[in-house]
Write a structure and sequence with these properties.
12 helices, 25 strands, Rossmann fold, pyrimidine biosynthesis, 2 domains
């Protein structure tokens, strides 16, 4: 059997495993990857891909999952990879900049030699169209096509005509192109499904520190606003201010994980006063903590997990707008240690928030919405990890549909 090592000498975290995943899909091999490490001081969200069975891995694995058509498993040791290759062909990405163990490749090759497994090496190069193999024949299509959002696909993404829908993503462009690409990819999937042109405008949260009127004016011209997830708590104040502005202005807004937390906190500002409330994780000294640690607490089915990861069932609340959007018995990838403070829910409901879905037997609020708003909806999980071309997540489709309606009739999105 054969072990194919795919060398991609990049320092872009979002490319981790992308080319190897596409090659594995094209050749029908198994896909494995070695443990990785990243400079999280520079790239806070470089390891935020959520494994279906739980745990976190390199964020670029989202491209491998999309190419393979199935979730990627957690990292394997060199011995485990060679054992798999002895039973059938295996493809492994090699990124020297991201290897957790500098000796892992040598150990992998020694183990392969000892087991009689042939090793094949291929090299990835960047082209004008995307990513290709260095030994590909002239004129061959790339292994992965790059779209104008930075996404990597096994076939070219078409560009629809017509006026583009302008959506603001409250995040830094580099973070969402080169570090954690899933949020932008999920928007592009939904736009492709709807047949609409899309322009994504990146609005770094630290820049949203002016007067509420100025922030509202900056966001008012967009068809919709996406509040992404992420682990960098420095983004929280700007996200909350953005959510407060779109809540007041009626601009369609969707929140993913951290984004659900910040949009809920914007409702708390309405209930308790601006800047009084924040996430415990972002501001432990906040007078009112909207999202609190699950560790050591109970609710619903019993003790809540300290860290909730992996595919989790979600129970939409009957009669909610979200219930009409999601399929029956939905499952979503989760990655969070904090949840909406149960004691605040009654006050938030009086301020216009509605719990739209729960998890852990009702012990966790998994989605929120504001019924009086044209579209103000978020999920505690990661809908962007449950999407691919041809099968976008319904929450993102509903968001862009509302955004398009907002452009046609701002008063009735």
């Amino acid at each position: 059997m054969t072990l194919t090592l795919v060398l991609d000498d990049t320092d872009v975290p979002a490319r981790f495993g992308a080319a190897a995943g596409a090659l594995a899909a094209a050749e029908g091999t198994a896909f494995h990857h070695l443990p990785a490490r990243f400079d999280t001081a520079r790239d806070a969200d470089a390891a935020q891909y959520v494994f279906a069975a739980g745990g976190l891995g390199p964020s670029g694995l989202v491209w491998a999952e999309r190419a393979l058509g199935s979730p990627v498993q957690a990292a394997s040791s060199p011995d485990a990879i060679v054992a798999a290759a002895a039973a059938g062909p295996v493809t492994v990405p090699l990124h020297p900049a991201f290897l957790a163990d500098g000796e892992a490749v040598a150990a992998l090759e020694r183990a392969a030699a000892d087991a009689g497994v042939a090793v094949r090496r291929v090299t990835v190069v960047e082209t004008a169209e995307g990513l290709a193999l260095a030994d590909a024949p002239p004129g061959a299509p790339p292994l992965l096509w790059r779209d104008r959002f930075g996404g990597l696909h096994t076939s070219a993404r078409p560009e629809p005509g017509g006026r583009a829908l302008a959506v603001a993503l409250i995040g830094a462009e580099r973070d969402h192109r080169d570090v954690y690409p899933a949020a932008v990819a999920s928007l592009a999937d939904a736009a492709e499904h709807l047949g609409i042109a899309l322009d994504v405008h990146f609005v770094p949260p630290p820049g949203l520190d002016g007067a509420p009127e100025a922030i509202a004016a900056r966001l008012r011209g967009f068809a919709g606003v996406l509040l992404p997830g992420g682990s960098d708590m420095a983004n929280v104040p700007g996200q909350i201010r953005a959510a407060a502005a779109t809540l007041a202005e009626g601009v369609p807004t969707v929140g993913l994980c951290l984004g659900m937390q910040t949009m809920s906190t914007a409702v708390a500002w309405r209930a308790f006063g601006a800047a009084v409330a924040s996430l415990a994780e972002a501001d432990p000294a906040a007078p009112i903590k909207t999202f609190v640690a699950m560790a050591g607490t109970s609710g619903g089915d019993g003790p809540l997990p300290e860290h909730r990861t992996g595919d989790q069932p979600v129970a939409p609340v009957a009669g909610s707008r979200l219930a009409a959007v999601l399929p029956r018995a939905p499952v979503i990838r989760c990655n969070h240690r904090f949840h909406l403070a149960p004691a605040l829910v009654p006050e938030l409901e009086r301020a216009g928030l509605r719990v739209a879905a729960t998890g852990c037997g009702g012990g966790i609020v998994d989605a929120v919405e504001v019924p009086a708003h044209p579209f103000f909806m978020g999920m505690q999980g990661h809908p962007e990890l449950g999407t691919r071309r041809g099968a976008p997540h319904p929450l993102l489709v509903a968001f862009l549909t509302a955004a398009a309606r907002h452009v046609r009739n701002p008063a009735a999105a």
